[in-house]
Amino acid sequence: MNKIINSLNGITRLKTRGISILLLCLLTISLKAQTKAKVYTLAEHDIVPNNGKNNTARLSVLLSKIKAETKAKEAIVIKFQKGRYDFYPEGGTIREYYISNHDQNNPKTVGIALEQFKNITLEGNGADLIFHGRMLPISIVEATDVKLENLSIDFDKPQIAQVKIIENDTAKGNIVFETAPWVKYLIKDSVFYNTGEGWEMQPTSGIAFESQSKHIVFNSGDIRVGTKGVTELAPGKIKAFNWKNKKLIPGTVVAMRSWARPAPGIFVHKGNNIRLVNVKVHYAEGMGLLAQLTENIYMDGFGVCLRGKIDPRYFTTQADATHFSGCRGEIISKNGLYEGMMDDAINIHGTYLKLVKKVDSKTVIGQYMHSQSYGFDWGNAGDSVQFIQSKTMELWDGQNTIASITPVKAQENDPVKTFRIQFTKVLDEEIDPSKQDIGIENLTWTPAVVFTGNTIRNNRARGALFSTPRRTLVARNLFDHTSGTAILLCGDSNGWYETGACRDIEITDNRFVNALTSMYQFTSAVISIYPEIPDLINQKKYFHSGIRIHHNQFNTFDRPVLYAKSVKGISFEYNKIITNQEYPAFHRNKNVISFDRVIQAEIKHNTIDGKTTDLSLK
Questions:
Q1: DSSP strand E in 80-202: where?
Q2: 353-385 confidence digits (pLDDT tens)
């Protein structure tokens, strides 16, 4: 009997195994059928490189055709060839986009608009996309599973005018400069204007670079440029009669610029699962990449960078290399190169709404406050939120949930700045704007972050900014001559209105080389933990927590390595500090570590020039 039972069990197992294998085969066939991509080769649609033609309208028409032909769950691959593709404003997609941390001027002319696509890949194969005039090169709007790979973005005539100092008479305040070969200009009423296709601009500020190293000139920061009271000595050779700066020795290269930031190189809005692989942005008049209200962004080999060592340019983007506002899921940036930009390599944050009116015990009016952040959604029903006292940056205990949120507009076509928000739970009586300034933070739209294996160098302002309560890993990066703070943890419900507190961040195995060579905002140390707290003296709680800084190497010419304010729980362990004399020490902060309202700190096993030290606090 047992033999019969064992035989039957064996047959049953064989049948079950056979069915499992059959189901697996059928599933594999089904998945292959679902993921089989439909390939569009651009050359077959009269879009070819290196002919100087305007490809904007052609590609726009093709994208419309592809969208109409695409079936549900069908993957699309659009293939470029290696070479230069030109895109002009003529034939561009005209859109009204409100882009976080940019100038809110509309409409915008888009070169490549990827809107409401699902499962689409732009395979560049080394394509060099060159844009003209003032354009937003690529927009990815309400799209899912989008991949850009092996392509670069640049502009034929950047709005930054690069010049070289030829002579500097500091006694008289006269400087002679020479424009780079690609710079076009005109002089009107003794004023220098940088010009391009459909635009002209008078530079008002500048960043000075050392000619050989391309480091930003020591202790220079943002400089005034002499574009008023000029005369042309010869084509491309200009004399400025009212420009005095002894740091601008002959040979110094100056990137002369304005403060405008109309559009990024790549704009992502309400995206999901966005991948950027080996994509380079060489110039944009705004940021390199701006993503807002997007879930899951993956970057590998993404760069805002020059075209290698032989590139005659010294600058890249007008603002941040990458910037993420109100995103969630994961933001992963690895193996990237960020250099020569006029602001941070990466900035991740949400946006505080200011509570402007309490309607009833569950309903408030909240408002965007910064002039560069409005016009887009802030939250959805079901999102978790918390409230913060703006002057002391202290949170109310507990969270609430959005029951409903509705834009409040005077006119139907107005960009949204104000919301009526109803919550599921009764609000604390003290949550009332008649009693104090209050910010509202959306916790649902906060991301986890992985920032690893990147190089950040020769840029203005700061290296990396992180403002998210979720797990953040900053590891194996090189911060090389970031002219301001290398890493900043901030939080501000008073000026920029950028949320929020870090709760779980690990900074490990990074190398910092001579950061903090100039003074900007938030430049208290190489790593600066600096929330904006107008009334710190009356603060009772702490803003940041869960900060771990270990096994890093700091090569520095100056003293301040770590500054922290309003932190509960921070460790600084097993770090190596190696001093050098590349520049003279100049920072007003003379302490290696400085704390202001910090508790639960662990500082141990650190060395300076090979010697263990207790790094006494001030």
A1: 83-87, 93-95, 108-115, 118-131, 136-141, 144-155, 161-169, 174-179, 184-188, 191-196, 199-201
A2: 999 999 999 999 999 999 999 999 999 999 999
